[in-house]
Amino acid sequence: MNILVTGGAGFIGSHTCISLLESGYSVIVADNFCNSESKILEKVMEITGKRVITYEIDVTNEEQVNSIFKNHQLEAVIHFAGYKAVGESVNKPLDYYYNNILSTLVIARACQMYSVNKIVFSSSATVYGDQNSPFVEDMNLLPTTNPYGETKAMSERILMDMCVSDSRFSVALLRYFNPVGAHSSGLIGEEPRGIPNNLMPYITKVAKGELENLNIFGDNYSTVDGTGVRDYIHVMDLAKGHVAALQNKKNGAHVYNLGTGYGTSVLEMVKAFEEVNNINIPYKIVDKRSGDIGVCYADVTKASRELNWEAQQNIRDMCRDAWRYEKYRSSVKV
Ligand code: UFG
């Protein structure tokens, strides 16, 4: 069974390719490598011992996308391709709307034209906006504070409307919480360009000595120790969530939170990283980052009930694997 994975060389995409190949699917990746590298897919093949067919195309290009649908009998599409930097989206809203919305439209239209009835879409917990956790799938969505979040909410809506108009479709809209960690081989992981925005890649750079200290954004939230709380999920658990969503054939559009259901504060994460890897992480408390909310974690009962999927790995596993990958990465100067 052929699965088209758009953005398959990215952080979550590449780990999902591993889970798909290990579950017996054939994987076809469409990626323009604008925020990734083709050698990641070589690592995926090395880890699994299986082949990945790759198309270096832009998923906003309808003609190129359609040619993949013509060349291969596809079972489903997992659509990851998109820009994902929250801060950048505020400065480049048109790029974000153009790229993220158009790619969803091109994929959805191709699926309709070629009768590929299963789509799994990469959404984000950011669509919930600033509400009280735990976030439940049927909550009203609030406008997010950034264009990136809006593109996710709009793409969800486009796919939901498609399902209303065409009952053949089965669409899973997966709202990710905070994916971190790396494949346990240490061969692939997160590769942010420049200074990382997200917590875990920042911590690993401090651990390596490339950055002097971690800046903790605020310590007076109403949380266990005042620092922000998030629902971190191991990227391999998240990858397996995609396979579970793919195997669920229920018609219509269905939303699922993919998280662990547990919140961890920034200081708890730092402490776990220090303990597991035996490295000191110096930090400073600085001002809150604009747009941040205090607490964000998932209600995960729906995914457990309907997809028979639950995250298995804990914070310590995430810290161990993130650091293993960072060490590998510096040893081969990726
Ligand atoms: N943080 C720091 N210092 C840093 C980086 C982060 O203290 O250098 C804190 C943040 O304030 C927050 C927590 O660590 O409390 C997690 O921050 P991240 O930047 O790692 O993640 P976010 O929760 O802000 O955002 C992530 C993704 C978004 C996605 C969102 C969904 O990056 O794309 O989760 O909830 F939309």
Quickly describe the structure.
This protein has helices at residues 11-22, 39-48, 62-71, 86-91, 93-113, 147-165, 199-208, 235-247, 266-277, 301-307, 315-332, and strands at residues 2-6, 26-31, 52-56, 74-79, 118-124, 170-176, 178-180, 214-217, 229-230, 232-234, 252-258, 264-265, 283-286, 295-296. The protein has 334 residues and is α/β, with parallel strands linked by helices.
Structural features:
single chain, 334 residues, alpha/beta, Rossmann fold, UDP-galactose 4-epimerase, domain 1, 2 domains, 7-stranded parallel β-sheet, 3-stranded mixed β-sheet, 41% helix, 19% strand, globular, binds uridine-5'-diphosphate-4-deoxy-4-fluoro-alpha-D-galactose
Please characterize this protein's 3D structure.
This protein has 334 residues and is of the alpha/beta class. It has 2 domains: 2-180 and 234-258, NAD(P)-binding Rossmann-like Domain (Rossmann fold, 3-Layer(aba) Sandwich); 199-230 and 262-330, UDP-galactose 4-epimerase, domain 1. Helix content is 41%, strand content 19%. The chain is built from 11 helices and 14 strands. It has helices at residues 11-22, 39-48, 62-71, 86-91, 93-113, 147-165, 199-208, 235-247, 266-277, 301-307, 315-332, and strands at 2-6, 26-31, 52-56, 74-79, 118-124, 170-176, 178-180, 214-217, 229-230, 232-234, 252-258, 264-265, 283-286, 295-296. The strands form 4 sheets. It has a 7-stranded parallel sheet with strand order 3-2-1-4-5-6-11, with helices on both faces. A 3-stranded mixed sheet has the order 12-9-14. A two-stranded parallel sheet has the order 7-10. Helix 1 packs across helix 8. The longest helix is centred in the first third of the chain and has 21 residues, at 93-113. It starts with a strand and ends with a helix. The mean pLDDT is 96. The site of uridine-5'-diphosphate-4-deoxy-4-fluoro-alpha-D-galactose has 21 residues, from helix 7 and strand 8.
